[in-house]
Amino acid sequence: MPSDPSAPVTWERRLLAVAPWLLIASALVRTWTIVTGFGNETIDLYVYWALAPHVLEGDLYQVTSPHSPPDFPLPFTYPPFGALVFLPMTWLPWVAAQWTFRLLSGLCLYWLVRVSLRLVAGPGWTAEPRVWRRRAILWTAVLLWLQPVYHTFEFGQINLVLAGVVLAAMVARDPRVAGAGIGLTAGVKLVPAISGLYFLATRRFAAAAWSVVAFAVSVALSFLVDAEQARRYWFELLGAADRVGPVATAHNQSLRGALSRTLGYDVGTSWPWIVAAVVSVVVAGLALRVAVRARDALLGVLVVQFLGLLLSPISWDHHWVWVGALLIWLAHSRVVPWVRWTLLALWCPIMFWDLIAFQLDRQPTIWTISRPGWLSLVGWAYPAFALLTLAAVAFVLKDRLGGDRGPASAEVDGLDGAKAA
Hints:
Oligomer: single chain
Strand content: under 5%
């Protein structure tokens, strides 16, 4: 990698020249691996497709998916507004819905890559547009093999769609658009609500206010559809992590999951989790301040999303699609070389090799909490590397990020990125 990571070297130029063909090949092979294996079932998508109509029947939280695994009947775990959003998909036959959602997820992956590159490129995007657009194609081909992305397709999860909407909202200029994007995605799945911290950190108070309004509208709509159903979710089921899934299974890469595997019991929100959460908030806060001072919109977005993944009771491995944007930032931003290569050397092996499957094969059941020490240590990979990344930004890169990023306002950068993308 040259001193200017935006300048392509010889080997990259050769790859960029054939990037469209690489994307086609990557998509075909990845599609084949999905449809010929477990991914053809897309069991989570089937939950949305089969259960969403129950939001109109008043029993959304009493039914489970008929295609559930034998050891865990799958319920609908999102707020009632999420079921309303999924309703149009249920009007399609199952196979049509399955392929439509796969195509939508693929397009959102490309969108996520393209906007991420636009944000790190700054004025360079217009100076060398063909290079950056070819990079978007190449990165999409590569990230189809990122394990969180693969598992999103495999399970039929909504992560890529939500990430695409959240990124677009967080960097949008219009505060109403920005706020509505975050508020409504939080209405579908609660975790995006943490994105409001970015608005506060960048003093976009109008966007933060609009996000609260949009979220309130999503909640109010669910009460209008069925008040008792909404009341049950918001006042009884909210916070019941064990209903979402087994907290300590290797799939859960949150702080709570990692701590539970290490200590041998579900730590809940007891003192071990509180200590880890406080450390995470402090380190993420320092990292966010670095990102804002450096006018680095993508880094700021990533810091907030990583904090959300750490603090959420359940952060399935496929929720970590944001690591794809991190790899783009590491490869193309002006980062101290040894930090760049160290973080890439840490993240790439666990992201492109199925570390989760390795752990699943060695745990007796998905409900087993206690496990051998070495296996619980392996289970810290995602949260530990996330904390290490945040610490590197907060303490190592605090005075060593720079470069011409154009306008000081992240929202102006975001507008340019959205237009170009």
